[in-house]
Every structure is written in C-alpha cells, then in structure tokens.
C-alpha cells in the first residue's frame, strides 16, 4: 500500500527548525530543516519521460506534495534540478545514479558485497622493498575499486542521500525490490544491503523518511 499522505511533514519540519536543540541533529546544519518546492505534475511527467520510468509511488507523491529535496535523513535528500531542459539529482554521490540505466532492473533482493572473493591486500612482509610493496598495493586497490565500484552493481538504483564517509542510501527504482530503500556501504567494504523494519519487512521510502523525522523529534525532546 502506497503511503501518499504527507500533509503533516512540513509543519513538523517547521517545528523542528525553531526548536533550540534543532542544530544538534546530525546533518541539520546542512539541510537547515528546509524543503525545496514540490514538483508540478508537468515537471514530474517530463522527468519520468526523460528517464523512461515511473518513480515508485511513495517517492513520487513526496515529490508532488512535499518537496523535490532538502530536509531529510543525514545531510538531506538530494534535490532534483532541471538544467538546460534535462533533469538530474545533485549532491555528494548523486552522480552515482546512472540516469541512462535507471529504467533497467536492479536484480538483487538480498544483500551482496562486490568485494567478496577478492584476495587480501598485499602484505608488506612479502616484498623485498618498500617500492615493490607500494607498487603492488597501488595495483591491488585500483583493481579493488574497479570491481567494487563497477557501475553494473547500481543499475536501477537512485541515490538519495549521503550519510558521510562516502556511505549512501538509495531507492530501488526497478526490478524485484522496486520501492525499497537500500544502503550502499561499498566505501566501507560492506557492499549493498536492503534496509529493513524491526519485523524484517523491507523499508520503503515513506517509512524511511518518517522514521528519520520521528527519531529527530525524539532526540530533540530528550536533549
């Protein structure tokens, strides 16, 4: 069931913004509790036509009724921008979204780590000189990054926010996990994993956003 009632969100964000402890919430000094304007029906239709997709319902209604970016988990939601007639998302890691392949299905339903199966990094004790070790280490990490950051791992994923330290969270746009929120922990060698509710159900966009909002309210009240 699509959660399309966002009527309370702007008032709750406004209340958070004026609370004396509002700056204590992680990321708040970046997004300042502000939302950018919603998109219009025409803008959303143009965006989806350009991408060849229909966005998952909960995020779609958020864009239409709440905002196109701004206040949200961690440093905030990557905002939508229209530049020279083309739509894209902006933010630290937003460029990891491959707009050209966003309509292709993300095939995964369970956590996976592209780094699995890679050999261990070179051990300095195995080399006759520091120069040889440095060269081997450089080769290893270039190969490691080529494997773990290969673009095919994130086909069908929309990057929505940056948690810091190059850790990010994404919305699955197409494929069997469509509408679910996942974590991209490849920067920490953790791979990709679905976000889940306490009962094990996959977390959708609405629960993901509202959980952040409720946690922010609770944290502020207890500081």
UniProtKB/TrEMBL annotation:
Knr4/Smi1-like domain span: 38-211
Pfam families, A to Z: SMI1_KNR4 (PF09346)
Alphabetized InterPro entries for the sequence: Knr4/Smi1-like_dom, Knr4/Smi1-like_sf
Name of this chain's protein: Knr4/Smi1-like domain-containing protein
Classification lineage: Bacteria, Bacillati, Actinomycetota, Actinomycetes, Micromonosporales
């Amino acid at each position: 069931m699509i959660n399309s009632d966002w009527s309370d969100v702007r008032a709750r964000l406004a209340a958070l913004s004026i609370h004396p402890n509002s700056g204590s919430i992680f990321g708040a000094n970046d997004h300042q509790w502000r939302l950018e304007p919603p998109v219009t029906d025409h803008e959303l239709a143009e965006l989806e036509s350009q991408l060849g997709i229909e966005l998952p319902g909960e995020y779609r209604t958020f864009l239409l009724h709440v905002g196109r970016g701004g206040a949200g988990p961690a440093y905030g939601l990557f905002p939508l921008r229209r530049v020279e007639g083309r739509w894209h998302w902006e933010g630290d890691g937003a460029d990891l979204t491959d707009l050209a392949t966003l309509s292709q299905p993300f095939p995964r339903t369970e956590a996976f780590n592209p780094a699995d199966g890679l050999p261990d990094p070179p051990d300095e004790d195995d080399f006759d000189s520091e120069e040889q070790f440095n060269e081997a280490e450089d080769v290893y990490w270039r190969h490691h990054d080529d494997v773990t950051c290969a673009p095919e791992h994130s086909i069908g994923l929309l990057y929505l926010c940056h948690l810091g330290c190059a850790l990010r969270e994404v919305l699955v746009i197409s494929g069997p996990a469509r509408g679910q929120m996942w974590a991209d922990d490849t920067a920490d060698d953790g791979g990709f994993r679905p976000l889940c509710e306490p009962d094990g159900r996959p977390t959708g966009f609405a629960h993901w956003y509202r959980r952040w909002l409720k946690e922010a309210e609770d944290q502020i009240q207890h500081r």
